[in-house]
Target: DUF1349 domain-containing protein
Amino acid sequence: MKRSSIYNVIIGMSIALIACRPQSQEIQPEVASDDTPSRNNVTECMVATQDVTFTHALNNADKYAKVLDNGTLEFKCPEGLDFFIDPNEGKLTNTTLPALLTKVDNTKPFTLTAKVTPEFTPEGLYNAADLLVYANDSLWQKLCFEQDEYGMHRIVSVRTKGTSDDNNHDKLDVPSVFLKISSDTHTIASYYSIDNNEWHMVRLYENYYPDSLLVGVSSQCPKRGSCTSLIEDITLNVDNVKDFRMGK
Model:
């Protein structure tokens, strides 16, 4: 057999093998390894309010909080502590926020609610009391009653997935507000209320958080002075709001 004929046979067999290659054997793109940050700044604690016991502290939060005789949680945040991951090359990133947290099974519904009264002061830019959903330092959301750049008090939400967004919502002329975060395992939504009856939706998105999740409360003081927040009527239920638009 001539050499050219041998080459033709080899080429023909190679083409046939490629054409008959099972679909399942196609080369798949590589999947990135799991680089999920750890919870290095989370420690165990025991802070019991009337209805919720916080079992974990982010950034030593248990040192800044105490339960008063009437059951209210007094949470004093020192100057300079905040939670924000700056999308602009991390220039303003600050992950020092103290938060009291407790575990939830994110494969089941949950609703976290609290009445918050932050300490608003003339120099207290971004002072706030927060509800927090926390997977790790790069995956979390906070819902805040916060003082803005004009000295106004408003609802603010920050969602972080690698980096943080920052959303200003309604301005409120009240000292206290009820905050709520609720999930049915598929959807997670945030709300506020003046009277714990009529709720206003702040934001709603897919619940992409891991099965093991921490939720809780915090007080923040990113700039000057301190912020002593009073947090009361804290509840955590294995249930979700029935109407995600109305928050009830």
Q: What stands out?
A: The longest strand covers residues 227-237. Residues 86 and 92 are 5 Å apart (CA to CA).
